[in-house]
Amino acid sequence: MTEKQKAGIEYSLLHSWDGWDEHDVCDLYFYDVKLREDIFPKDIIDQVSDKEVDLALKLSESKAEVWVAEINLEAPIYTKNIKLSFQEV
User: Fold this and answer.
1) pTM for the model
2) Which of 15, 17, 18, 49 might form a disulfide with 34, Cβ 3.0–4.6 angstroms?
3) Nearest CA to 46 among 55, 58, 37?
4) Per-residue pLDDT reduced to its tens digit, 48-59
5) How far apart are CA 13 and CA 56, in angstroms?
6) Could you give the dihedral angle defined by the CA atoms of residues 9, 58, 83 and 45, in that order, rounded to the nearest 10 degrees?
């Protein structure tokens, strides 16, 4: 892998994030993220463009959840099923 390549599931879903936490064994939470437009639907991108967005990668459940506190504190505004596969780089 060259120095400029970025590896990791977070790079396949996000352009950037300000912080992250690990919960339990395999769940990751990213805070104040910028979602990748080629992965998430345009209506979701438009809905959150001016808001602080968090992303929960619930690998134990094979899903990614988009959370926006000012829209809904009780549930994610979008859930995407994900599948991990390994590839040699």
Assistant:
1) 0.80
2) 15
3) 37
4) 989 999 999 988
5) 11
6) -70
